């Protein structure tokens, strides 16, 4: 993937850049692996907004991606590398010897014609795109699409360019270093895919104008300071007044920005060796 920058002929183009899509090999998705995606606008089953600033956006189909990689010991050939509007990484259409086709999250460096394989018990090489249990992967290897529960499917490191380093395996657990700096334990029986997730330049895209965010289904975020006191704890005042509070608050009055919100009684807390690094 590369980044394309246009001549600044308009205000929106001056600060923006776009994906050049040169790494794609197909324009239309596999019909048997798409489904209708219903837009919910951040609302739950009761119709209440539980995730703010979501709504609208371009219509899109959902691509059914195989996160489990549970077709074991059957080689698959990479047929196409495709764009998925529902995620930042590329997806690859692979065809198995028995005729079945599946989408997987494509690793960086995967090309059409490559052969990949997933194995739980058999010994296979740690090549890019192969999936195997953490206990079978060499130490210091970078992996993505990692399971947290064996057989549930990959949950960690699925977005563009992400990769987790395997620090070692001891006892029932493998030790992983996440991109955030967090070090945690995961069952050694969990599957992971070798490599980094594709589309590593995604983070360099500059959206440039509000309209492109609206196409993605992201609605504007209004500052609490710009609201009235009835709408937000930061609201009110004349001109550029400060928020007038000891700590920043959420719209519902809870302390925000820098406050730890993780539940201390969460079962997985005992598996976290080192918390993520604080970003400045």
TrEMBL record:
Ranges where the record places region Disordered: 1-23, 223-251, 261-280
GO molecular function: rRNA binding; structural constituent of ribosome; transferase activity
Keyword Transit peptide: no
Organism superkingdom: Bacteria
Biological processes per GO annotation: cytoplasmic translation
GO cellular component, one term: large ribosomal subunit
Ranges where the Large ribosomal subunit protein uL2 C-terminal domain occurs: 126-255
Keyword set, alphabetical order: Ribonucleoprotein, Ribosomal protein, RNA-binding, rRNA-binding
UniProt domain Large ribosomal subunit protein uL2 RNA-binding: residue ranges: 42-118
Record's compositionally biased regions (Basic residues): 1-15
Family as reported in the entry's similarity comment: Belongs to the universal ribosomal protein uL2 family.
Subunit-structure text: Part of the 50S ribosomal subunit. Forms a bridge to the 30S subunit in the 70S ribosome.
Role according to the record: One of the primary rRNA binding proteins. Required for association of the 30S and 50S subunits to form the 70S ribosome, for tRNA binding and peptide bond formation. It has been suggested to have peptidyltransferase activity; this is somewhat controversial. Makes several contacts with the 16S rRNA in the 70S ribosome.
Record-given protein name: Large ribosomal subunit protein uL2
Gene: rplB
């Amino acid at each position: 993937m590369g980044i394309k920058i246009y001549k600044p002929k308009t205000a929106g183009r001056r600060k923006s850049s776009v994906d050049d899509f040169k790494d794609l090999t197909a324009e239309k998705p596999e019909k048997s692996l798409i489904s209708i995606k219903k837009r919910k606008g951040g609302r739950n089953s009761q119709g209440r907004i539980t995730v703010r600033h979501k709504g609208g956006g371009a219509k899109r189909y959902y691509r059914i991606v195989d996160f489990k990689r549970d077709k074991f010991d059957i080689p698959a050939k990479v047929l196409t590398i495709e764009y998925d509007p529902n995620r930042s990484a590329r997806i690859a259409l692979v065809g198995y010897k028995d005729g079945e086709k599946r989408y997987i999250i494509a690793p960086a460096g995967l090309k059409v014609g490559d052969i990949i394989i997933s194995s739980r018990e058999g010994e296979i090489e740690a090549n890019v795109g192969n999936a195997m249990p953490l206990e079978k992967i060499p130490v210091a290897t970078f992996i993505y699409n990692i399971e947290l529960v064996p057989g549930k499917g990959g949950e960690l490191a699925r977005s563009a360019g992400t990769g987790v380093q395997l620090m070692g395996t001891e006892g029932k657990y493998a030790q992983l270093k996440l991109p955030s700096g967090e070090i945690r334990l995961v069952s050694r029986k969990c599957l992971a895919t070798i490599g980094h997730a594709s589309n590593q330049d995604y983070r360099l895209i500059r959206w440039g104008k509000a309209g492109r965010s609206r196409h993605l289904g992201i609605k504007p975020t209004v500052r609490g300071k710009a609201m009235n006191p009835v709408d937000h704890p930061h609201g009110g005042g004349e001109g550029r007044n400060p928020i007038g509070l000891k700590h920043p608050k959420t719209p519902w009055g809870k302390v925000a920005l820098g406050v730890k919100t993780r539940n201390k009684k969460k079962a997985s807390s005992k598996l976290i060796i080192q918390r993520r690094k604080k970003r400045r």
